[in-house]
User: What shape does this take?
Amino acid sequence: MATEASQPRTRAPRPNIGALQWLRQNLFSNWWNSLISIVLLFLVFQALSALLRWTVTTEGWIAVTSNVRLLMVGRYPPDQLWRPELVAALVAVLLGLSGGVWRGIPLVLAGGFSVAMIILGLLSLALPPDQAPPVFSTRLFLFGVAALAGLGIAAGQRLGEVLRWPLVAGWILLYPAAILILRGVGEAAIGTNLWGGLMLTLILAVSGIVLSFPLGVLLALGRRSNLPVIKWFCVAYIELIRGVPLVTVLFMASLMLPLFLPANVRVDAVVRAIVAVTLFSAAYLAENVRGGLQSIPRGQIEAARALGLNVVQTTLLITLPQALRAVIPVLVGQFIALFKDTSLVVIIGLMDLLGAAQAVYTQPQWLGIPGGVWRETFFVVAGIYWIFSFTMSRTARRIETDLHVGKL
Assistant: This one.
């Protein structure tokens, strides 16, 4: 017999009120609320009107529009731009097919990606023609990628379950395939010293997220191990890495590591940065996962043992999935912070998105513009960071809602 406590909780229905009544209840309910609302509305109006005037009248946008390629791919050779464009096309196809097969969050991401490419394509009509080969021009590429994502959605909805496992394999192979395409092989290889802009930022962020996740989970499990050697090694690693800032780890990887290597051994600068970001992120991720593991009641582990499951089966089937589900908000916050922290690689000489922005506003041809062009350049860079961070945040919120995280 269902008790009152076991009944599903339902929210009280919201009253259907008009705009004027909502304003009267929330902004002008009494004289001091009205005064505060008027002052705040005046300040917001002043700020927005000043921003709009600056956006329309400033001359600095020409610096951004003239350096779109530098901001996107750094000093990547113009005749090799088909490589990052091919990677973007592969992402669009996989994202579209995933949206068509799984619907839900992948479909929202695929639709948003396609719409964003169309908007950027329309905006590119106002840009000066770039120097890329005509078949790979920016406008054709943007509209083509949007079309690929849309066609992928349609194909995924039509084929359905047939594509489920091939898509999983495709997402797993995408990372090494993208690195191989961007790098090239043999004499056609493109040095990572030419990688830069948003492309390098995404490579560092994705590498840090993808590679630090399994390492962090292993460290979290190792810290809870009953074997003293494994436990204290994981504890020492986590506490050591968490005790220093990311800049220190980057300097160690960039400047100190070559001193300990043989003279004929050289590790690529981007690889060193990826390793440093991965090791740093894994230490924090391990602590987040450990917190999730500690939240699992002891009774579940004892019940699993009573059913005959061994330690590995109990961890993989019972405790770890629940722990990861419980710490989704924390993990997403860490991934967003990692995406923004990759801007620190500019200190060790890599030209990521922030480094490309610095290269743009220091170009001598913009010295004649009053006040320089740094405001416009950093405004665009901030917008790019916000779009990616906001997308990650909203996606995580949707996942939390679907998985009922935080609800009994």
